[in-house]
Specification:
mainly alpha; 51% helix
Length: 315
Amino acid sequence: RRLAVAMWFHFRPLGVRQHKSFHLQLESQTSPRRNPEPQQPLGQQKSTALRDLEKYVVFQNKFVVLSGLCADLHADIIDTPPRQRMPTSSSAYGENRDAFQDTMNQISARADRLYGNCLQLRLLTPIMAEAFINMVVLMFCKDAIRDDSIQYQAFIRAKIPQRLELLTKNCHGFVRHIDMATNAYRDFMRVIDKRNFALHGNVDPLREQIETIYFDGKRPLFNEPGINVEKQFDHMEALYEPDDVIREYEAVHEFLVEIRDCLDDRTRAFFDQVITDAYPGYEVRKKRVTRILPDHHITGFMQGMRYDDELNVTD
């Protein structure tokens, strides 16, 4: 697992492992027997040197973050134990009120965790899928499309079905079109079509009702017989649909694999390297994404060396 971004920044001895072009003034010293040649100011030297280097910016791969969150939520939902049933009579626990309270606390805690996980996974799954598709576009978009701002904006802002159709036309590396007649695509689009209602925080009490209660004055009259609290948990289980949430998540993953499998072997191998990189690099001049850093980070300290934080620098 990668270290947090904050761990990347460690102190380094001045001059150690810095590019030699940053120290041209040390290499440009001349013999005292002749007049030194005029030099450019250090800032200009640095700018000149930097222009000859490949410039990368490191950015966060949102797909890695989202897929990690979704995988954890998926595992939590799968590992959730079956719900305990409530006692069917007031004498089920006898005089042991603590045992009854403990049972109720466990049922309530399970409900809070499970239904919260279902809501989060249902919200994040379509976002994760779109982050995957957008990484494909970023990595393999043809220069002619990328360099034309109108075409590129139309491409990345197209609706999901149109964007998928354009992938094989506007991107390198595809050996076949994405099959939109598969069950995986149908299930994928069902998830995508439902995302807007949830992502915009829409509230529809009739569509999302848990149960129906009538009131006779201040007396609640429940529509169904039975233990009212347990009936509420039954209705919530039906509303949050843990089994359906799991199926939707797995269906989206299956379709993302189908997109990947449309790439040729060489492109797919490169894609696998970059799509799993939490912090890939973006080459600014060529507008290309690649893996530039390892998954592990090493730092070292030399005994007796004065580091940046130990130097007393004054103007």
